[in-house]
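How a chain folds remains the central question behind the approach discussed here. In the encoding step, the backbone of a single protein was reduced to a row of integers, each denoting a local shape. We regard such an encoding as a compact summary of how the chain folds. The sequence in question and its structure tokens are set out directly beneath this paragraph:

___
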Amino acid sequence: MTHTHHQEVAHDTQQHASTGATKPSVLEQAGGTKGLVYMALPVITFVLANNARGLRVAVLAAVAVSVGIAVERLWHRESLQPALGGLFGVAVTAGISWYTGSAKDYFLIGIWAGLAGAVVFLASVLAGRPLAGVLWNSTTGKGTAWRDDRRSRRYYDIATLTLAAIFAARFGVQQYFYETDAVGSLGAAKIAMGYPLLGLGLLVVAWAARASDRHLKAVARQRQPRPYASV
């Protein structure tokens, strides 16, 4: 029975290792470095066109660039989700800006999404279910053992609070530029505080996951019954 149990544990470990080896990174899921450039282009186009030709031209230019990016990605048979997701996002934000007649409203959804993210991450820590741990362990299939371990929860609390701070910083900085009508600074903040800043937060999440895994394995080893010495 013990031998069978060890075989099952070894099989699960190998399965997790193979899954981790083939699972694309966050950067790869976003389309790599090329994908990050594509995400910044509509924002840069909007800001430059708004300064040069006004809001209406800026909206049309941003949508046109986003359509061009989607077509280029589909032409090269790249991932469909980033292409259509980016196009939809630009269409919605540009539509809001067109409707209100204010260039700064192009960034309105992103600003309030930052506040919502900060509140959700903070609330998950206060509820004793840090969202970084919930998301990481559910997507990697590692179960819920970490929830019953105080030290693991502490690791994920740190990671979740880091993400909450990132989203709160996004809201604070961009809301300031929004109130001061600094459209150019809004665009720069949106790019700089997007994936680059989120990448730092994900590094903290990865640290928390590794620290939790090491601790849980150490606890499991301590709880394993020691084999009787042969006489």
